[in-house]
Structures are given as C-alpha cells and as structure tokens.
Design brief:
Number of helices: 9
Number of strands: 0
Order of helices and strands: HHHHHHHHH
Helix content: over 70%
CATH topology: MetI-like fold
Distance between the termini: 56 Å
CATH architecture: Orthogonal Bundle
Strand content: under 5%
CATH class: Mainly Alpha
CATH superfamily: MetI-like
Structural class: mainly alpha
Shape: elongated
Radius of gyration: 22 Å
Largest sheet: none
Length: 239
C-alpha cells in the first residue's frame, strides 16, 4: 500500500504532474467537440448532396442544374471514398506536414483534420438516415407545394436525425478516442500527457491506466446523456 501511495505521489502529485493530465484532457475535449461540429456540418451537406442526386428525378433536371448536381455528387463521392479509405493518422500527418504546414496552431490542425475525417462517416450516417425515411414523405411534401430543400429541412431531416442519433453518438465516442493520436504532431492531449509522466517517472502503470480510466469515464458519461435523450424522444413519440 505504501508502494502504491509513493508511486501515486511520484506520478501525479510531485512537481504538479497532474497538470499534464488536466491540460491534456482540456485539449482532447476541445478538439473532439469542435471536430464533431465541423464533421456534422460537412456530413449533413455531403449526405444531402448524395441523396439529392439519387432521389431527384433526372428528367426534371436540365442544363446547368443537372451538371452542377452531378459534379457535386462526384466530389462528395470522392471525398467519402478517400477519407474513409485512408487512416486518420496518415491524414493528420499530411495535414500537419504538407497541407497546413504554415499553420501556427497544432490544435487548429487537429480540429480541422478530425472534423474532415468525421464528416465522411457522418455523411454516410446521414445518407442512410435520409434513405430510411419512407419515400412517401418526400412525395407528400412536394405535393403540398414545398420545394425539395423545404421538404428535406422540415420533414425528412428531423425524422432522419432521430433515426441516426445512436450512430452519431457512436461517431462522437470514436472521435473522442481517435484524438489520442494527436501526440504524433506534438499536441499535448490526454494520452500524451500520460506518456509525458511515464517518460519522466519511468512508471507506466499508473499514468497510462489513469488515462484509460478517464477515457472510459468520458464514454460512460456520453452514453448516459444519450440514454436520457433517447428516453425523452421515446416519450415524445407516444404523444
């Protein structure tokens, strides 16, 4: 017991080493939530573009509108294929060392990288949610005189979001854990904070297990909050 107390003191209390964990946690949460916002925005736009191309009656599209939609759909497909087909770590390194090499903030690089990465997965989630909504909903909206965009915004998307909410929460959890690779570009996030302590004290057990427990606690909190939201949505469906 004394040995554990001594190790705990050495790893976290001595020289205020716990600050590596708290500052790293702050960076991890900032990168995760900003990247999630970016990813959701990109994902919704890309998902709608792909669905619009599949759902719109090609006979109704002529000239510039048809060409524009085809080009946007091609770009969206390429984006999803490339991002989903390459590792997040490779994307992070490419962004840091090549595309955003002049960027002064490593955190901004991480936010943009993970936001773009998450957007590809969110796009497929959103597309699946939209396609799962009965086609009669779109036809009813158009019959009432709503445009495609108005029908999508007022009728289809609210139903789609409710259907894909569990998948979006899973994406948030995955994104949270993926930020652990930010240390490769020198960003002191949660995992790197634990690794710095390990490198200083030469004790891997407590710092790394401590980091793992924090990640686990964050995932449990997210899952609990989602369960509350899901329960509330179920109640609203009954009335």
């Amino acid at each position: 017991m004394n040995s554990f107390s001594e190790k705990f003191y050495q790893d976290f209390i001595q020289d205020d080493r716990w600050k590596f964990i708290t500052s790293g946690l702050k960076v991890t949460l900032c990168v995760t939530f900003v990247a999630l916002i970016i990813g959701v925005v990109i994902g919704v736009v890309v998902g709608i573009i792909r669905c619009a191309y599949d759902q719109q009656d090609k006979k109704e599209l002529h000239g510039a509108r048809k060409a524009a939609l085809s080009i946007l759909n091609l770009i969206a497909r390429l984006y999803v294929t490339i991002i989903r087909g390459t590792p997040a770590l490779v994307q992070l390194l490419i962004m840091y060392f090549i595309i955003l090499v002049s960027a002064k903030s490593k955190m901004v690089v991480a936010m943009l990288t993970f936001g773009i990465n998450s957007g590809a997965y969110v796009a497929e989630v959103i597309r699946g949610g939209i396609m799962s909504v009965d086609s009669g909903q779109m036809e009813a909206g158009r019959a009432l005189g709503l445009s495609y965009v108005q029908t999508m915004r007022k009728i289809i998307l609210p139903q789609a979001f409710k259907a894909v909410l569990p998948s979006l929460v899973n994406e948030l959890i995955t994104l949270l854990k993926e930020t652990s690779i930010c240390g490769y570009i020198g960003l002191n996030e949660l995992t790197r904070g634990g690794d710095i302590i390990r490198g200083t004290t030469f004790d891997a057990l407590l710092p790394l297990f401590g980091v793992a427990l924090i990640y686990l606690a964050l995932v449990l909190i997210i899952s609990y909050l989602f369960s509350l939201v899901e329960r509330r949505l179920r109640k609203s469906d009954r009335y």
